Amino acid sequence: MTGSSVASIARFAFSRWAKAATVVGVPLALAVLELFHPHVRDPTELSRQSLPTWLLVHYLQIALFPLAALSLGLLTAGLSGPMVVLSRIALFVFAVDFVAFDTAAGVTTGVLVEAAQNAGALAAWQAPLLTVWNHPIIGGMGSPLLAVVGTTAWLVGALASAFTLRRAGASWGLVALLGVSALGLAVFRTHAWPGGPLSFGALALAAAWGQWGGAAQHSGGGR
């Protein structure tokens, strides 16, 4: 075997490993992270003990949300058609939207709470904190616009991907997992437990199935 052949095999193995790490590892990491997402009715409930966890979760989500969208997009790599295009557009919207949502409702409120606690004047900061938290677009309570848009985009992206993969010959098991992933955020209306772990955990299982189990082997255009 020539040196170039060995190098080609190594590159192929690495690319397969890198893809598997992305499509399986990223949503799995996000699903586990969401198990630690604190549940609060408003940010003033964050204590000095829970605030570091809140901030860490939201900082990590800024990277993991768009990477999860990439993970889902890679499941239909090599396929084509209008549903693939729809999925790509929806996943792009989800990635951009949820980074903005996470930054505003998560990181910004966490940083403000931290400053208020350090100043020993949490009550004095309550009004501006709740102004951000209850904002109809960027807030973290109720159904703010960014949350609705992002959740809908994930729903559309996952369902369009499931439809595309089924038409390409993927098993019903994989398609069902993508259906669960699509509905988790929408049904539970939260990316904390149980919505986030359910959506992203189901995606990780679907991706693992596609890598090592029952997905059809496909390349080139879709049907």
Shape: elongated
Biggest pleated-sheet summary? none
Helix/strand structural class:
mainly alpha
Q: How much strand? A: under 5%
State the distance separating the first and last CA atoms. Answer: 38 Å
Low-confidence stretches: 215-223
Task: List SSEs in N-to-C order.
Answer: HHHHHHH
- Indicate the multimeric state: single chain
| Residue share in helix | over 70%
Architecture overview:
74% of the residues lie in helices and 0% in strands. With 223 residues, it is mainly alpha-helical. Residues 215-223 have low confidence and may be disordered.
Features of the shown structure:
223 residues; mainly alpha; disordered C terminus
Helix-strand blueprint:
Elements: H1 3-34, H2 51-74, H3 82-119, H4 122-133, H5 145-167, H6 172-188, H7 195-212
In short:
The protein is 74% helix and 0% strand. It is mostly helical.
